[in-house]
Structures are given as C-alpha cells and as structure tokens.
Amino acid sequence: MDRLMRRALVTGLLGGIAGIHVSLVGMVDTFQRRDTIADLVTLGSMLPILILLVVGWRAASPIKSAALSPTAGRSLLLGAMAGAVGGLILAALAILVVAVDLGWVLINATPGLAEVLQFEQGAAIGSLLLIGGGALLGSAGASLHVLPSAIARSLAVAFVISVGTALMEPFLGPVLRNLSLDVVEETFFAGGGLTLFGFVVVFGLTAAAVYAWATRGDTARERVAAMPADRRRTAKLIWFGVLFLLLLALPQLVGQRLSEVVGTVGLYVLLGLGLNIVVGFAGLLDLGYVAFYAVGAYTTAVLTSPVSPAFSPELPFWGALPFVIIAAAMIGLMVGAPVLRLRGDYLAIVTLGFGEIARVIFLSAWAQPIVGGAQGILSVPPPLPFDRDPQSIYYPILFFCILAAVAATSLGASRVGRAWNAMREDESVAEATGVNTIRYKLLAFGLGAAFGCIAGALFAAKIGVIYPQSFDILVSINALALIILGGMGNIAGVVVGAIVLVGLPELLREFSEYRLLIYGAVLVAMMLLRPEGLLPSRQRSAELHSHESDEEQYAETTGEDTGRPVVST
Amino acid sequence: MNADAPRADDGTGATAQPASSEPLLHADKVTMRFGGLVANKDVDFSIPRGSIVSLIGPNGAGKTTFFNQLTGMLTPTSGDIVFDGASLVGRAPHEIVEMGIGRTFQNIRLFGAMTVLANVMVGRHTRMKASWWASLLKLPAVRAEENDTRERARQLLKMVGLRRRYEDDWAKNLPYGDQRRLELARALASEPKLLLLDEPTAGMNPGETAQMTALIKRLRDELDLTVLLIEHDMKVVMGISERITVLDYGEKLAEGAPEEIRANPAVIEAYLGKQATGA
C-alpha cells in the first residue's frame, strides 16, 4: 500500500473518530433542533457532513514533503475511500448505540442519536446511506483539488458563506422582518436555517461573486488604481457614507434583543482595535489586556454610581471619561514600564500576571471599601443622553469604535506606525535605525490601555452593574483570539473576528454548552489552514507565507527574473 | 627597512589634510571588559572627515566589539569616544543615529515583512518630526512630511541602484545583493555623517563585490560621507581604504595607509602566522 492510500485510510479513521466525538458529547443530537436547509439537512447532520468533506479534501491533498500529488482520478478515489471509511465508522457507532445500552456511561449514546446518524432510515439502509454518502462527500471534498483553483475556491467559500448565512438566521430573519420584507424572509428562511431555495440562491450568488473576483479581480483592482485620485476619493467617501448610514440604522433594523448582541460585539471591536495596536502593530504580546478593561469599568463605576461604596461624586458618564483616560494612561505606564526590557514569551507571561493581579485586587478585601469586593458596584448610570436600552447604548459604542478605527488607521500609516512595525520586526535593529524603542513601547501600551479602558467604561455603563468576575482571563483571550482570527493588523479583520467569535455564539445560544469546544476547534483549524486570519493585512500574509518560496514568489509577482540591477559606476 | 622614507612622503601628502581639521570621530583609550575578558584594550582610533577607513583583524580581534561601542550597543568600560565634538559614551543607539552615525549589519537585518520603501522610510525616523497626536490627526504638516519622506526614500533607492518597481515588495523577498543595497539605503536615510559598514561585501561574488565597492566610493563622494568599514576581504580593504587600522587580541596592532599595512611584518604575522614572515 502506498503512502497516499495509507494516509487516506488514516484520515478517514481520524474523521470517524472526530464524528464519534461530536456525536457522543451530544452535539449532533442537540444541533438537531435547528435546520441548515429546512426539512432537508439539520444542523446536527451538518456536523458529520462537514467532517466527511474535510476528510475527503485532506485525503486528496498533495504530500508536499515527498512531492507526491495524486492524479485527478486518484484524488477522487482517495477522497471517496477516506469518506467511506469515516462513514463506516459512524455507521458502526449507530449500530453499536442501538445494540448495546451505553446510556449509563455516555449519556448521549441514545437510540435517538442512531436515528439521526442513519437519517431515520433504519439500520440497514441508514448504514448504506452513511457509507455511500461518506464516499460521495469525501470525493466532493477531494474534488477541490481536482477543479481549477478559481472554481474550487469559489465553491468552498460559497459553501462556508451559505452555511454561515443559515446560522445567522436568528439575526437575518428579524432584520428582514423589520424591513417589512416578510416575503423575502419566508422564501429564504425557515426552521432556523435557509430554505432549499434560499440555500441554492445564496450558494449560487456567492460562488459567482467569488469566481468573478478570482478571475477578474485584478482587472477591477487595476481599474480602481487607474482612476484619478479625486474620483477614487469620492468613491471611497460614498462607500464609507453608505456603511456609516447602515451602522446608524442597525439597532432599528435588528430590534431590541439583537441590539444587545450588536453592542457586545461593538465592545469587543473596541477591545480588539486597542489590543491590535499593542500586539499587531508593535508586536508586544499582551495577555493581560483585561486589566485595562477592568480599570476602565471600575473607574467609571466608582465615579458615577450613586451607591459606590467609598465615595460617590456621582459624575455623569462623560464627566468621568477624562478620569478614565488618565487612569488608563497611568495603568498603561505601570504595566509598560516594568516590562520594557522583556521580549516575546517573557512579556506574555508577565502581562498574563498583570491581568490576574487586576482581577484579584478588585476582588480583594483590601480594595473592598472602594470597589465593593465580590458584590461589585451597582447602578452605574448610562451615558446621557442615551439610556440603558440596548438600542440606545449602541450609539456611544459605535462612536468610540469609529474613533478607534480612525485613530488606528492614521497611526498605522504614519511615522509612528512604521516605528512600531520596525520594532515588531526586529527590536534591536529598530533601535539602531533611530527608533526610541522604549518610548514607542510605552506609547503602544498607553494607547492600547486608553482604548481598553474606554471599552471598560462603556461596558460598565451598558450593563449598569460590575463584578470582578466579569474581568477574567477569558476577556483577554477573546480579544487576542479575535484579532488573530480576523487577521492581525487589519481593522476590517478585527470587526469580522468580533462578529465570528463574539456575535455568532450569541446567535447560537441554545448550543452554548458546546461553545468552547467549537471555539477551540475553529482556532486550531484556522491556525493550520489560514494562519494569517480571515481578512489579513498584506503584511501578515507575507510574513506567514513568503518563506515557502521566497524567490519564486518574488519572480511571479514582479513578472521578471530576480536578476540584480546594474549600477552605473 | 625603507619604512621611514615613504612615510615622510605620504605624511605630507595624505595625512596633512585631515590633520588640519579635527577628526570626525576620535576614540581615546577605549577599553571594554566582559568579566575577565578584555575585548578592547586602550584602543586609540581616529577617523578623518571625508575618508574611508577600515578596521581589520583576525577573528576574535575585537572589531565587532569596537563597532558596537560606536553605535551605542555597548558602553566602554573606560575611555572616551568623541564624535563631531560630543561624547558618544552612555548614549542609547537611537541617540547616536540622531547625532549622525548610520550603520549596516554583517548578517543583513532588514524589516522583512515591511515594504522596501517602508524600510527606507523607517530609516528617516530621526529626521522626522511628526508626533503621535499630530499623526493621529493627520495634520497638514504631517502629510507634507510624509510625502517628502517618501520622495527622499525613492531617491535613495535610486541612488543605491534598486529599481523603482521593487518599492512595494517585501524586503525579505528581495534577492541577496539587493537586500544589501536596501540596508545601505536605510542607513543613508538617517542622513549620517559617518557610515559604519559591517562587512558590506560578505557573501558576494567578485562581480557584486566590485559593484558594491564602487557604490560605496560613489556614495562617499556624492553625499559627503565619512565611511568606516569592517571587512575580511583584503582585496576590498586594500582597494577602497585610505587608512587601515589593524586590531589583534583587542589591541591596536598597526595603523596606516594600505601599502604600509600590506608591508607591516606584525600584521602579516597576525594574519598568516609566524612562518609566513620568515618566508
């Protein structure tokens, strides 16, 4: 048996094990409650389908280290084989679950699970369906290697976006209804997912769009580049104007309940933008970013709440904000100064400590007279003239998000941004090139702290009550994960990352017990498949992919040889 | 044996001029100790304005240590280094760049995931004024300075012979020889009075080496630079330098014009061993 065949079998086996895992932890059964395609594919059966697709794709990918790439027919065969193996294992699981009562150890190993896995067709037909369907899905996954790359790419992206759209039903449905587009809503969405018609339309449209971009995108880009500067400016302004109006109308579009979610996403966008300055621009890995968030929230609460334990000046939110920013700058310097000489891993560990210290201090008996210990601080007023209603509090959040985005953009493309980037690339060379690295580190920490504290202040005003428990390490991890997932160093990436990591879980609340499991799987998959994030800045892509074939890529992109220029002497 | 005669001749010809003005850089009894190890001992060293001077010596002779003291990476244990009328000792590397010393590295160290143009623009950092809040607000002065910097960076790229279409490529994607040129452009962007080059032709073939040597000479003439080289390649050193200083075991072994150094028995011994002098 050759290497490719062996790998296909192993991949199928691993896929089967993954399938067993998600089945036995109860995901398949729980996800049964929602449809992806109404009356056809439930979210529950989507899980094995996804696994088998990935298995097929993986089994047919070329082995780079051995320069082995299977022929087209062979690819499909390998994919089908791996898929069938995966299907076989799941079929075996279904039969086993029915035959042996495992319910007393594995509470999710119920006959109901078997029914889902066997598509409610009974053991015999169900098993055949699983194996055959596995082979089919496996070869579908494998076909991504066979098809021309532009087509494969558009199919894959369209599939992901269609499934994503189905998942977003709880968000998109109300939006359409609020726009009085009930007809559209009814034709496209049903049962918590897309209708078959809706799925086909979304899939078709995105596939066509991605294909057009892949094949003609360059011409479009060239045309944009060829446009006179003032017209390009106008186009950009119009685009931003439309986006801005959309953002303004968003709370009205999505309604009360979802505005809450949008607000939370906004807070994380703000956190992400601030942390991005520290990690993405300046390359200082900060794992204790939650400290700033907590300081911002507590400063606001102490200064504004009428029931603040020690003293309550009862400032309005906007009156407290300057103090929040001063506190931010101070805490930024406090964290920054001791870690100036640290790099990389050491910096990460120390900042991790700072994050925990902040939480523990706010919880401690020592600080209780001022910040209320475990009881926290109640009755934090909303920022007037907005009230606590989620549709209203959204606007100050939006305002600060835009402010942070504008600040990050202009700083990123300036002398300051270049100095940060240089520091991230090579700190000692940056210093030897004239950058005062100590100063720029402190600046990055200070500005990052300011955004983090403002996010904290808005958080306090948004929920009105703060406890130390709100500021655990997960906030830091979330903020870091969302900029990595979205694409480090890129503002649109931060927004997308926040939507995926913070927004989507809120829309899938009924499955919240699996949240961390999915979260981990998504992060691992992202790091393996697309380490630069969903919407990378050009810089990050270069960093993570160029080492694969520096000179060839160079020759490709410039369309010429790598010959050295001639110097006139 | 006839060492005395040419010396008198050369002395009036080559050293009279620098002697009239004070040297751009003067190191006075510089000593650097690492624990018990003495890396540099009482090194006296001068670089006349406008000259190309080389620092040579066998491996481990203390060249790089000396170099690092000039750039502020190390602080001498004792002694003083005066550059353009002010002492360098105790200053941070970025302050020394601001005073007018630019450098390149032996093993090329570019900002890999930044564009070629951005690399050169970072080099101009100390000559720019934009503060963070002015950059944040994109004040008109900041924009003007940014445009000016971009133009100057382009001129420098042209000057070192990098083609314009490279400017948006990643520095790490450039071929080796071009990376050396880019590093040179980045160092020049800080408008140095003194340019320190750490083995600028390391890893180059003879053709590239000749080009680089010519480039260094041309840059010196066009930009009014003073150049200090550390170099292993004797051909390069002899071809380009007006003065050579030889270090051995951390101490200055010899100093003089290339012909003198070539003929100096102590230098030959240090480089080739004792038998070579006998032969």
Which features does this protein show?
heterodimer; A: 569 residues; mainly alpha; ABC transporter involved in vitamin B12 uptake, BtuC; 3 domains; two-stranded antiparallel sheet; 73% helix; globular; B: 279 residues; alpha/beta; Rossmann fold; 2 domains; 4-stranded antiparallel β-sheet; 12 helices; 21% strand; disordered N terminus
Summarize this, please?
With 569 residues, chain A is an all-alpha fold. Chain A has helices spanning 3-24, 27-31, 43-60, 72-99, 111-117, 123-146, 149-167, 169-178, 182-188, 196-226, 229-281, 290-304, 317-336, 344-363, 368-371, 390-412, 415-425, 427-432, 437-463, 473-486, 491-507, 515-529, 538-545, 550-558, and strands at residues 35-37, 41-42, 189-190, 193-194.
Characterise this structure.
The complex is a heterodimer of chains A (569) and B (279). Chain A is an all-alpha fold and 569 residues long. Chain A has 3 domains: 1-146, no CATH class; 149-214, no CATH class; 247-542, ABC transporter involved in vitamin B12 uptake, BtuC (Orthogonal Bundle). Helices cover 73% and strands 2% of the residues of chain A. A two-stranded antiparallel ribbon of chain A has the order 1-2. Chain A has a two-stranded antiparallel ribbon with strand order 3-4. In chain A, strand 1 (35-37) and strand 2 (41-42) form a beta hairpin. In chain A, helix 11 packs across helix 16 (390-412). The longest helix of chain A has 53 residues, at 229-281. In chain A, 47% of the residues are buried. Mean pLDDT of chain A is 85; it is low at 546-569. With 279 residues, chain B is α/β, with parallel strands linked by helices. Chain B has 2 domains: 4-100 and 192-278, P-loop containing nucleotide triphosphate hydrolases (Rossmann fold, 3-Layer(aba) Sandwich); 112-190, no CATH class. Chain B is 44% helix and 21% strand. Chain B contains 12 helices and 10 strands. Chain B has a 6-stranded mixed beta sheet with strand order 6-7-8-3-9-10, sandwiched between helices. In chain B, strands 2-1-4-5 form a 4-stranded antiparallel beta sheet, covered by helices on one side. In chain B, helix 8 links the parallel strand 7 (194-198) and strand 8. In chain B, helix 4 (116-123) crosses helix 6. The radius of gyration of chain B is 20 Å and the shape is globular. The chains are: A mainly alpha (569), B alpha/beta (279). At the A-B interface, helix 16, helix 17, helix 18, helix 19 and helix 23 of A face helix 3, helix 4, helix 5, helix 6 and helix 7 of B.
